[in-house]
Amino acid sequence: MHAVHQLYFKRKSQSTKPFRARGCKVNRCQYCQLAMDNCICDIRVQTGSKCKFVLLMHDIEVLKPSNTGRLIADVIPDTEAYLWSRTTVDNKLLQTLKDERYQPYVVFPEEYIFDNRPVVKELDSLSTSKTPLFVMLDGSWQEAKKMFRKSPYLTNMPVISLSNDTLEALSFKSEYFLRKASKEGQLSTAEVASLLLQLNNDHLPSMHLLLWSELFSYRYQKSVCQTNLANPDVEQRYQAFLSNLPSR
Ligand SMILES: [Zn+2]
Q1: In sequence order, what E strands does 73-195 have?
Q2: C-alpha 1 – ligand 1 centre gap (Å)
Q3: How far apart are CA 39 and CA 78, in angstroms?
Q4: Coil, strand or helix: which one is 177?
Q5: Would you say the pTM of this structure is higher than 0.85?
């Protein structure tokens, strides 16, 4: 079990009534949240990374089967996950953010920053002797804005933003379609993480996470019995990726 699995079971045990997700009648795997016959758990592997991720998850986000923050923890070892609260903060999270080994960045779009804090967006500006630690605000767009505004421990942290220029430079096109994005071109949490890894020249885990997220989306569509599935070759591409992985 990784950090998001643990958080999922903890949050679920606190629920007084079951969370009614779309497609709630589907019999899901409790780990990957896909329908049992589409479960991807037995082909899940992790890739080492030069970066670390912290997921700050908005309350019911961790219960949503379509959540993609979980995919980061699937692929990147040592990912931490916390439930966000306006009034309390986990001590372990504060310790991680203060840890001298890491350079934390909160990931947030530049146009919504309301203060004068530094924004990192250049491709080569991540060079630091410390391990980059990316704090991902995992929730709906409205929830992420609230988390950004109402978390005092994030206010002294530089922001990293993926600008349109950066996306263009990386020739990136979102394959995210599980939820109706409230903004054209909005990326999923897992896609953003993959791009951050790419910015840090961490290409293998970046590619791995993107493929894993495409595979998840594909199996998710199958789970809810959609037809005309996008990305039908992703199973073969993922298997090819696995067979080319350096032995660990
Ligand atoms: Zn599974």
Answers
A1: 80-83, 102-107, 119-120, 131-138, 159-160
A2: 11
A3: 23
A4: coil
A5: yes
